[in-house]
Structure formats: structure tokens, C-alpha cells
Amino acid sequence: MQDNNSQDSGPYRRDVLKYGAAGGAALAAGCLGGSSSTDRFRVFDPETSGTLPSQRHCNPFNPTQRGTWHPGALIHDRPVIYSPAEVEVYPLIATDWEMADDTTLEFTFSDEWTWHNGDQLVADDWVMQLQMALAMLEFQAEDGERPHQFLESVEAPDEQTARVSLHDPLSETVAVQNATAAILGDEARGIFTKHDDDQWSEWHSQLMEADDSEMEALVGELTSESYPMVEDVVGNGPFQVADIGDNVMVFEKYEDHPNADNINFSEFSIHLYENDIPTQPYVNGEVDGAHNEFPVKDDVKSQLPDGHTLVRENLSTNKLLTFNCGHDVSYDTPFSSANVRKAVCHVFDRQQVVSVLEGVNQVFDWPPCRVPGTTLEDGSHDAAEWIQDFTEYGQNDTERAAELLEEEGYTLEDGEWYTPDGERFEIDIMNGSKQKHIGVLKDNLNEFGIATNQEQVDDATFDERRHAGEYDMMPDTSSANGVRAMWALDLVPGWLQQITHFDPEAEIPMPVGDPDGSEGTKTINVEEHIREWQITDDDQYHRELLWWWNQTVPQMEAMFQPDAGAYNGDNWTIDGPDGIVHGVDDALYLVTKTNEATMEYTG
Predict the structure, then answer these.
(1) Which DSSP helix (H) or strand (E) runs through 157?
(2) How confident is the model at residue 38 (pLDDT cuts 50, 70, 90)?
């Protein structure tokens, strides 16, 4: 087995792997980084403009200088592969799972996985990681609150079994997704804690035994320590650390990995550049693949390799118009009224955005509903049918916009709109001055008679003001990586409520799809509705949540962008289930880990 503290013979690779910023193309000559390598898959590092490899660590609980995504997601394996785009679970270290009863989920771990030092990987390794996360959540929770919405505890009754206890009955897939999701950091990307490692076992024991007076210092330590450093890490995935340079990380195949016989290349390398856009290095043949930033603009498409092939095609990001709904904030905003939010959404003419898409974005040509555009486009979920009767916005329907404003006491005089207080109706838009869809909206509003004031503030001020609710409108970009993923409890009633300030208690017209409410209204609590959907798996909750979004519009989807990665199919072939190849963040890493998918050098 490899000694992780040793170096290959010859020059120390950190010295020879450096490259000049001016050149940028050739990382290093010869066997270490040559651009014509036939036995190494070279990937662009999306965190390229961030932390240097020599400073990265694989502590999943420390969010700074992290190496738990790159390269951690390559050199560590996870219990299962969960595809948010397909809502599908694929086996990895855990070969089987079942609900032992309504609130108990059991995983069976394979005995074929070993750590890169030869030690057996056991269920206790993952259980330790999850127990640590839950203990820190418990310390952070308010009195009387559940530390985790669904997970109560976890234990390892034997070396190959992990038993997760739930607060509530859940469907099997939802239970697995919650048990293997990221809770405090990047721990969903792999099993990083080795139960008999001195440092991890010490931290684990302290967390399990500490009283409240000791927990603050302990959690502070655990979330700030850089242990282990990437160059020293012992992983459990199909590739192990070979050398860490200033601008490239090299990994060699771990021959004792269960999937090693299916991997026909010996090295995997991750390359850093001056900025985080992979287009030029990919076009120049300096890397074989990139995790994201595809598709590319129209003027670059002709430069792509003949074998250019996309992965992660079912993942996307949304470009949104975001409103300050004004709940529980002191800032006086016109958008505390849902009718005013709806009016602005009606004024917007998204067809005018078509001319500024540049081949990258696509118009979100459906009613606001918080369903991924890729899902609506291919009709792969019943939501594509549910939303057909939902209210359409973005049609430059100035007549309907005027009706809504007049209902709220706004008046139109000489082509200009005035507030109920008689003031000129002006909307402050925070940031987004260079975003094309924001420019289209401003033109639409000005033509309709609503004044706009564009404010551009620095990142710290932007974050402070959106959390304090001190703005009218702003742009937002968010991932749209799956029907369920878009309604995570920590995302909608957590993060989204914190920046849009919507009222968590809402009245929606009924039945679903009838904005006139011929059957009256229904009061829902957004968080409780999401939780009940997770527990019961009843589509009624999901449909009503989509309807709430459509009728409340804290945000409106203006465009969406497929968040794909790419590889050069002239020399490489990737094949496997759509849920892995096109539905998972770490697709370029995961296809090397499992016999469910294949990645081969064919050049």
C-alpha cells in the first residue's frame, strides 16, 4: 500500500508542476503534466481561483480552504449515490438498504472497501461522521427544537450495518436522501472520518461527552481545523493521492478498490488556472473535462472538440427576479403586497430576453412554480401537467398589471404610476446592473410608467441588506437540481425566507389552479407543508406548494441555464444511468467509483 508521506523518486513534483501565469497552457512537460498524456484524465478545478492545493484540507465540517469537494469527492467514496435530478438512489459502499420499520432505516455496507492504507472500511466510519454532525446540530438548536428535521440518531450495531433512527415515518427514498445529505458541510461527498484515526476519534469522543459549557469551544475547533491536509489524507475511493503541486493535483488508481478492474487508466489529475471559467483550457486541450460552465456562448461553440460531450445535463441554475416580501422587517417596500409583486411580473416581457441569451441561458417559458426548467422541458414529472392552469406572468400583460395596482390604490397620471400615498412609484433594484434580464425588466417598467433606481453595492453590503430586508428587488441565481431538492427545508423556509422575507403562513386560493378561489382559500404553513410532503410522499402537498409559489411570487424564474459539465469524447467514453451521468453534481468523479457506470480511455 502507498505510504502517503512518501514522494515518488526524481524531482519533488511541487517544483516541476508549477507553471507561469503568462503561458497558462502547458502545465509541465513530460510525464507529470503533459497535455498529450494518454493514461491520465485531466479535469479543470472549479475552485481554481480559490485555495491552493497545498492549503486544502479534507475536514468536511470546516467550510474554509476546503478540499472536500476537489479532490475529496474523488478520493473518498460515499455510502450511496443519490441523484437529485432523477430522485434515484444507486448503491456504492452500501449495497442494500431497507426500512426495518416506519422510523428505522438500515444500510448494509460492503466488506470490499478499504482505506488507502489497507484498513477495512466499516459502518462505524460513516456513523462517526453522522454522529458528529448531529451532535453539533444539537448544540446549535434552540431549546425544544429538533436538531435535525428528520434524523434522530445513528448507530452501528455491527461492522457492516448502519442504523438510522428517524423522528417521523418517511418513504425509503426520502429517508435515504436525508440520511446521506450534507448536514453541516461537504460530508455528503464522502466518508471522511476514519473511526480509529486518533484525531477523528478524539473529536468524536469529546462531542459525545462534552457538556454545554465545553461545546462552543469544541465546535469552534472542529469547524476551523484543517485536518487532514490533502497531501496527507488517507481516502477510500478509486484514486489516492500521488502528488500535490501548486497548480495541479495528481492521483493514481488505488488497485484494491472494488471498481479498479473497470478503470482502464492509471491517473486522474485536477488542474488550477487563474480564473474559474474552464472554456479556454478545455478548448485548448489542456484538460479533458470540466464539472460545469457548459453550454458555452455561441461564439465559442465552433472551437469545441469534435467529440465534445456533456454530462450533468439534467442539472440547471435559475436566474430569478427576487422581491422583498416585507414580512417581519421594518423596511418600507411596495412588495409587501403580493398584488404589486404580481403586477411587476406581468409587466416583464421575457420574450425580449431571447435576444440576449447568447446560447447559454434559456427562457423559463412556464408559470412560476419552483420546478426545474429541464424537468418541465422534458415533461418527466407530473408537475408539467399540474402547472398548465397556473397563472402566467412575463407576458408584458400591462392591462392585468394595471388592474392589480389599482386594487392596491395605485393611480396612473399622464403615463406615470403613483403610490397610494401620492408618491411617484419607483422601484429600487439592488445589484444586477450587468444582467441582461434585469435590463429588460427595467425597460418594461419604465415604458409602463414605473420608475426604477439601479443601486450597485459591494458583496458585503448586498448580503447584509438582503438579510435585513432593506431592498425592493434584486436578482438571484440558484441551483435547480431536482424536483425535491428545490424544496429542501433548509433551502425554502430556511435560506429563501431569510432573503425574500415571505410570510411562512400563507393563504392560497383554492382549488389549485384557480386564482379566483371559487372554493375559497386555504391557509398553509410552508415549512409544515414541506415536512408533510416529505413524510407522507403525498403529491397534494407538493402541488399546493407549487401553487403557493405561483400566487405569492417571492421570486419569478426569468431564465434557466443548464449547469452541465463536459468531456472530450475524442479520447474518452462515459456511459451509465442518466441519474449518475446527467443527474449528480460530481458525475465526473462518481463514474469511476461504481460498476453502474463506466469511464474509459479510448484514444
Answers:
(1) strand 151-158
(2) low
